[in-house]
Predict the structure.
Amino acid sequence: MPLKTGKCFLVGAGPGDLGLVTLRAKQLIEQADVIFYDALCNPEMLAWTGEDVEIVFAGKRAGEHALSQDEINALLVEKAGQGKAVVRLKGGDPFVFGRGGEEAKALAVAGIQFEIVPGITSAIAAAAYAGIPVTHREQNSHVTFFTGHEDVTKTENAIDYDALVKLGGTQVMLMGVERLDAITREMLARGSRPDLPVALVRWGTTARQKTIVGTLATIAERVRASGFEAPAIAIFGDVVLLRNELSWFEDRPLFGKRIVVTRTRRQAGVLSSELRALGGDVIELPTIRIAPPTNLREFAELVQDAHSYDWIVFTSPNGVEAFFEIFFKLYADTREIGAAKIAAIGPATAQRVRDFHLHVDMQPEEFVAEAILREFEKLGGIENLKVLIARAERARDLLPKGLAGMGAIVDEAFAYRTVAETSDVTGARRRFVEEGADLITFTSSSTVENFLDLKLPWPAGMKVASIGPVTSATARERGLTVDVEAKQHDIPGLVSVIRQFFGS
């Protein structure tokens, strides 16, 4: 259902893990006309936007001017007043130290419709991902949230430290790492016990998460010694001790490994999700996107005549999707495909065929064109059989030449082409240049070619993982060393060898 125009949505973007973004937030991002986002929002969610969306950075970042709160308020009113669906993405929850109340008030005063979409706050999520429950029946019965941005040296503090210390329980401080020394001194001066357990969690719920544990008397020095910086939350209370038993997130096999995924933006999700589930810090840096074939009419004519072939060969899921997108514009019934048998390279391709309720008659164990040729040889002769190959433009000509050499009558249906991805709405290239990576993954020859054509600096020590021999050959031709090659040439196979490569 499309959004109503002239409305602003104040949306909690969650603590960082994409899996913790609400379904409502994702729906609004997909349908927005304008998006304002903060620095603590995971930029990967901007990949969910439509093509014509206007994206405005409204946070603080080194080297970039941040909009003032008054400027943000005015822009929200202006854009929504133009009849647009405006999404204001705020890290965590918009009403938990997020100034969402100020923005909602500005919209209300201007007579602009608005909706509040709560998000999971880092105050509880970062603690949970560090293995620290903010409440526990045997430890405490209440939790207090406070902001560390308040200057404790002021004559009158907004935070009543006497009451905070007297209240006890668990206390969670957001925003205040740079003032931690002064805050802990204030708490000690007001009677808090020096051995009170304290934990700081930086970049909580993301693969960059780091946790430091100490006591009220020692934590400030530990933070200084480690170079620990914002963004972080601090947790004060005996529940911190439970981390020794409940730590889980930082123990995953790929935790701390930064891995680049170069698949198309649409396809990156499966590989990224599996790597993230193992703890990997994934940078989605798509180098290609799928575009219609150069001669769409010719492709459509071949699809229209699909029923006249003895075999249809699909070499990729993209080919299957492009084929049936055209097929169902021409026909209303799958049976119009006739008696053609179907061959598929790889389980993902075969599954995509089955999604259309069709049987796959040939699926070799190896996921390469050579294996398909061997399977056709086993048939004992395919002379004069008509074969239609649905494939990408500029793909290897091994398969059509091989089948023609066996006597088949072969037509190539160029279903799609891969073109260079030029947009970078998530800022992935910037992050790659600034932070580097431990491993880069290539899932096709075109991802290799187009990544290298970007001419980005190659981080020291970055390794290469390839999905199979054809992709590896292209990488070596371009001067790369392939450190990891999947034995099973699909996404699960690639994930498996990456896990083995990092020794887990």
The chain has four domains: 7-120, 124-250, 258-287+421-501, 295-419. The longest strand covers residues 409-420. The first helix runs from residue 23 to 31. The CA atoms of residues 383 and 406 lie 6 Å apart.
